[in-house]
Amino acid sequence: MDVNASKVDPKLLELLVCPLTKGRLSYDPEANELVSEKARLAYPIRDGVPIMLISEARKIEE
Predict the structure, then answer these.
(1) Parent domain of 8
(2) Beta bridge partners of 35
(3) Where does the UniProt annotation place the signal sequence?
(4) Mean pLDDT over all residues of the chain?
(5) pTM, entire model
(6) CATH number for the domain that contains residue 41
(7) Which residue, 32, 36, 38, 41, is CA-closest to 61?
């Protein structure tokens, strides 16, 4: 996969919120995930598409 293809459009990032908390998300380029610090969840991005399902999110351990 092209490295640039996995980047998240900043405008999309402004629109997306955590489905659990409705809070802001940040992009983690190393893991290619959208992270909700408040919910302690990381949502995967697959083939350039954010998967915004709580059931698909990875729990962030401390």
Answers:
(1) 3-59
(2) 26, 42
(3) none
(4) 90
(5) 0.86
(6) 2.20.25.10
(7) 41
Q: Please classify residue 2 by burial: count the beta carbons closer than 10 Å to its beta carbon, then call 0-12 exposed, 13-18 middle and 19+ buried.
A: exposed
Locus of tokens 């998240």:
8
Q: Note the pLDDT of residue 4.
A: 46
Burial class (CB in 10 A: 0-12, 13-18, 19+), 13: middle
Q: What's the first-to-final CA gap in the chain, in angstroms? A: 30
- Please, are residues 56 and 43 in contact by the beta-carbon 8 Å criterion? yes
Look at the chain and report how many structural domains it folds into.
1
Query: And the tokens for 38?
Result: 């408040």
Identify which of 46, 40, 5 has the alpha carbon closest to the alpha carbon of residue 23.
40
Tell the residue number behind the tokens 């919120």, with chain if given.
17
